[in-house]
Amino acid sequence: MSSENQQRALRPRRSCLAVPGSNPRFLEKAQGLAADQVFLDLEDACAPLAKPEARHTIVKFLNEGDWSGKTRVVRVNDWTTEWTYRDVVTVVEGAGAALDCVMLPKVQDAAQIQALDMLLTQIEKTVGLEVGRIGIEAQIENAKGLVNVDEIAAASPRMETIVFGPADFMASINMKSLVVGEQPPGYPADAYHYILMRILMAARTHDLQAIDGPYLQIRDVEGYRKVAQRAAALGFDGKWVLHPGQVEASNEVFAPSQEDYDHAEMILDAYAYCTSEAGGKKGSAMLGDEMIDEASRKMALVVSGKGRAAGMRRTTSFTPEEA
Ligand code: GLV
Ligand code: MG
């Protein structure tokens, strides 16, 4: 893993808040919400006639707003429209220093990522920004994108996340359901399992984060929680939130439980002790009734990394007698 990607992979993204770029009231309110990431949208939450003005509204809010503690992303329009280049040029020239990533929707192949990478590089050089700092988030929203997800994940060192776009995806494959993220009636298993796993494998192969998309029944927080848990259980890093009511649920679902976080930190301590000189340089050890080894350490690192990124504090401490 390159050090650049290593740094990118560490950004917390449990909750990724969608904010229409054309709505100053929402852009104002979003700054006070506890989402790990905000993305200011120029695509589907922004009507075609509102897009030109929204580009400038976004520039203003990125430069003048208080987004501290949040990853700042702008979603541009996809390359099949006439809007993409102006979205990127206006936003990055106007507010590139206040932007962490550009999200590209409906990505179909590596060339679309490379085209965005080249455009970003030109703008960075022109306006004197550090070349390569702005990352790319790629949305997978149709069959072609999913079939090409490996080459998309590998297309640029700017890549940070692969994002599942369930609404467009369901439409693109003719899934027989209108409720985004919910199971289509009549199918006896999980209709999303293959798609989510395919995205997750590509993301993990290239050290990227995997993010689940929106849940549109915004008043049904329990429904949101269930769908979020499905992605979190597989290993996804976070999910979109469309409404303040979904933020807390997402932050909770994608962080480890306190018990799992404490357990992970204990495994790391116990393993570090047992493999040390003082602990007898052992390759495996016991923590209570549990045998732990190098593979346990790797699993514990994932859980502790997510807990630390979420600002959790441990409530137990390790003593050598426990090992
Ligand atoms: C998000 O963009 C989706 O299509 O679900
Ligand atoms: Mg979409």
TrEMBL record:
Entry superkingdom: Bacteria
Identify the residues that the record assigns to the HpcH/HpaI aldolase/citrate lyase domain, covering every copy. 14-244
Q: Which SUPFAM superfamilies does the UniProt record give?
A: Phosphoenolpyruvate/pyruvate domain
Q: Where is the signal peptide?
A: none
Q: Provide the binding site for substrate.
A: 75, 141
Cofactor(s) this protein requires: Mg(2+)
Biological processes, Gene Ontology terms: oxaloacetate metabolic process
Residue positions annotated to bind Mg(2+) are 141, 168
Q: Which GO terms describe its molecular function?
A: lyase activity; magnesium ion binding
Q: Respond yes or no to whether keyword Transferase is given for this record.
A: no
Q: What is this protein called?
A: CoA ester lyase
Question: Which organism was this protein described from?
Answer: Streptomyces reniochalinae
